[in-house]
C-alpha cells in the first residue's frame, strides 16, 4: 500500500453513476424507451470506465500518517503509513470483477427492459443499486463503507426480488430482510469491536495494528468479531445454514434478476472473504471454520438441486452450491486456493448467466420451467438447446470451457494443502451439477412432448439471444485462454495468501 | 468487585435489548411484532456502539483554541461510533419501511399477519 493515496476521479464514478441512474430511471418511470436507452448507455459506460481507469486510490476522509511522539501529521512517503482513512482501492482484481459485472449488467438491463411492461423504472433502479453496492464492496478498504454497502445490498436484493411481483417473491424478500437485520447488526458489532480493539476503521491500518501488537487475551475480541463477520459472509453468499433463504430469493426472482443477484452475491463473497482472510486469517481455526462452511454449502446445495423438479429452482440451488466452490478456494488461503476461488467466482457468474438467460428464454415458450413437462423444445428452438448444453458443460467443469480451468486449480490447491477429501467434494459437485442440469435439459428439450398440446410459439428477444451467445463465447475463450483472467488475479492472490498449516 | 459505570450499564442495557430483539424476531408469530422486535435489536446495537465510544468527561472531537494536542488526544471521543450510530439509525428506518411494506402486501394477499400462515412454503 502506498503511503500517500492518490484521489482518482474514475473510482467513485463506478458507484456514483449507477446511483444517479437509479434516481433518473425512477423519475422517468413510465417512459420505457427512455429508461432502456439510459440504462443500456450507462451500463456500457460503466464497463468502459472499469476498462480504462488507472489503478489507485480514492480517498474520502481521514488523514495522512500520524507521528505518535509529536501528534503531528507527516507527508513523508517513507513513514510507515497509518492513514486512518475511508478509501476505495481499484487494482487488477477490482478491474476484472467490475468489468465482468458491468458486462452482465448490460445484457440484464437489455433483457429486462425488453421483457418488462410494468414498474420498469423502480426495477431498473434496483438493478443499478445492486451494481453500486457490489462495486463498493469490491473496492472498499475500510470497514465503515463495507458495512454500509452490505446493508444497502441486502435491502436492494429484497427490492429486486419484490420486482417479480408474486406473493412467493414477497415472502422470500420478507424472510431475507429479517435475516439481513440480524446479519447487518452483527456486522455493525464486528466493526465496533475491531474499531474498539485497534482504533482504526481502515482495513489496512487495522491489519497493521493487529500484526504489530501482541493482543494477548484481547484476541478473544477478535474471535467474537470474526464470528459476526462470518455471519454476514454467510448471509451475503447464502452459505450453509441459510442456503434455503438465498435459494428462495434466487428462485423467486426473474431469471435475469437472478443473474444480477448471483453476480453481486459471488463477488461480495470474494471481497468479504479476502477481508476476513487478511484480518483474521492468522488466527487458529479461522480458516478451518470457513472451509467447513464452504464444503457443507457445496454439498447441501448440490443435493438440494438434485431433488428439485423445476429448472429455476435447480439453478437456484446450484448457484448456492457453486458459491461454496468459490469460498473453498478463499478459505484455503493459499496462492493456488485464492487464484482458483476468485477465478471460479468470475467463471461462475458467467456460465450461470448463460443458464439463467436460457431459463428466461423458456418464459417465451409458455413459461413452463417444471421438469414434470416434456416440451421437446430442441426442435422448436435448436439454438437455445445448443446454448443450454454448452452452459451446462461449462458449469459442470467440462473442458474446454471456463469452469474446467478454475475447478482444476481448486482441486490442485486442495491436494497441495493435503486435503484430498476437499478435492473429492469439488469433483462430486461437478458431476452432480451435470446430472442435475442434464436431467432438466432432457425433459425440457430432448424428450418428445407427451401431450399433443402444442408448445406456444415464441419470439425470443434478439437481446436475449445476443447475451446468451456473447457469454457462451466468453466461457469458451476463458476456457481456452485462462491467463486472460488469471493474470489479473494471481498478483493479488500472491499478496494476500497465507500457507496452509495442517 | 466490578465498578458500576455508565458504560457498563450501557452494555447491559444494550445486551438486554439485543437478546429481547432476537428472541422476538425468532419466536413471535405476528409480523408487526417481529418488526418491532427488529427495531429493539437495532436500538440495542446503537446503544452498544454509543457505550463503546463513551469516555468519562469526554469532549466533542473538535480542536478548540488554546487546547493542547495531548489534552485533545486524551479527552476527545472517537468520531466513528457516532457516525456508525447515525448511519445505523438511517439503515434501521429503511429496513423497517421495507419490512412494513412487505407485511402490508402479504396481509392484503392472505388476510392475516400470522407468520406461521403467511410464510408457509409455496413456490408458485
If you had to describe this structure to a student in words, what would you say it looks like?
The complex is a heterodimer of chains A (502) and B (124). By secondary structure, chain A is mainly α. Chain A has a domain at 284-502. Chain A has 19 helices and four strands. Chain A has helices at residues 10-27, 32-52, 92-115, 120-139, 143-162, 167-198, 203-212, 219-237, 243-252, 255-280, 286-306, 311-332, 335-363, 377-380, 382-395, 402-416, 420-446, 462-480, 483-496; strands at 56-61, 66-67, 72-73, 86-90. Chain A has a two-stranded antiparallel sheet. Chain A has a two-stranded antiparallel ribbon with strand order 2-3. The longest helix of chain A is centred in the middle third of the chain and has 32 residues, at 167-198. Chain A starts with 9 loop residues before the first helix and ends in a 6-residue tail after the last helix. Chain B is mainly alpha-helical. Chain B has one domain (6-118): Helix Hairpins (Orthogonal Bundle). Helices cover 70% and strands 0% of the residues of chain B. Chain B is built from five helices and no strands. Chain B has helices at 6-27, 31-52, 69-75, 79-110, 115-118. Chain B is elongated and about 65 Å long. The chains are: A mainly alpha (502), B mainly alpha (124). At the A-B interface, helix 5 and helix 6 of A face helix 1, helix 2, helix 3 and helix 4 of B.
